[in-house]
Specification:
This protein is an alpha/beta fold and 364 residues long. Helix content is 41%, strand content 18%. The protein has a 13-stranded mixed β-sheet.
Amino acid sequence: MEKLKGEKLFVFASILNKTVNIQDASFSTLCLSDWDAKILFEGLSKCRRVKILVLRVSELHKEESFQLLGKILTIAVVENLIFSKCLITEEKMFKMNSAIDISIQQDVTLDFSGTFQIEIRAFFAIGVLVKKINACDIQLNLCQLSHEKLYYLKEALKGYDRQIKQLGISGNDEMYPESMRHVGEIVKIGKTEHINASRCRLNLNHLQEFEKGLQGYTGQIKRLDISRNDTMTPRAYQHMGSILIIGKVQNLNLCHCKLETYNLGALKEHSNGFSGHMESLDVAWNGTNIDYNILGQIVENWKLKELICHGCFNEQRHFDDFFRPLREMRNKVMITHGSENIPSTTTTVEEFRQKISRVTNYRE
């Protein structure tokens, strides 16, 4: 069924409310507001089984409406619960959580991205909601996260026995370093596999704290996105190396990070013993100030399966420096490359060499 919101949703809920003996109801997207919360709940309660792919909670302000949302979550299976344009308070979240009687939810994506108005103590209630609806994906991008907010979320999540597969905190560029320690502890609690911390202005102190919080992590981080953090120094990359080892990271995104020679060298030196876990490394759009020899050493040492390097190799000498340290990985690693004017392609090292050579000869 099409996306329902506003007057359309109200009219549909009214019709549903007058209908009896509905066995199954399935919806693609419902947009819930104060205006239609009550009549929608009454309509959905007539159905025996209800499934909602996306329930978008927009402009929900009254505590009574949050209570009705909790009741809806008791009778309808929801895959994606998205909050936007809402003032989230502890009282409202308490009302909603109290109304959730028996959880019928499984592997829910809980998304507060772009919701700036979340009270500090409401984050404890968000953690309680995660447990009640069995959320496996928590998105807190652009939420003005703070040390206190993440502390309350972490405390509420203690004892959560399900996996939080994904955690998004991108765009929170005013976090104090201590915030990242709580992020590490949340990752540890949920055995989180995908972490997006792009555009957070991370520095040495942030990565030190993240490393502390991550100590004792027993899962495997399948994807760590640190892209667009151009504030990291060589000492920060030293701790990055330790984080890779602790988390057994499979895919690392460092695009747009000003990954210059000293940073890359520090990452290589402090990731000794890290090999066999990494599948791909993304260093795209880091300019041409990279030490390509060190990059080749990292590919060799980490046994990389794929190097993503859009906009990094502009000259034959760049490739020559990169190729020199490759031994075992010469015929194994795949190179994904392109530029602003050239579509992305994935090739072997030899095919990549030939392309670089053709481009260089053409320029000459």
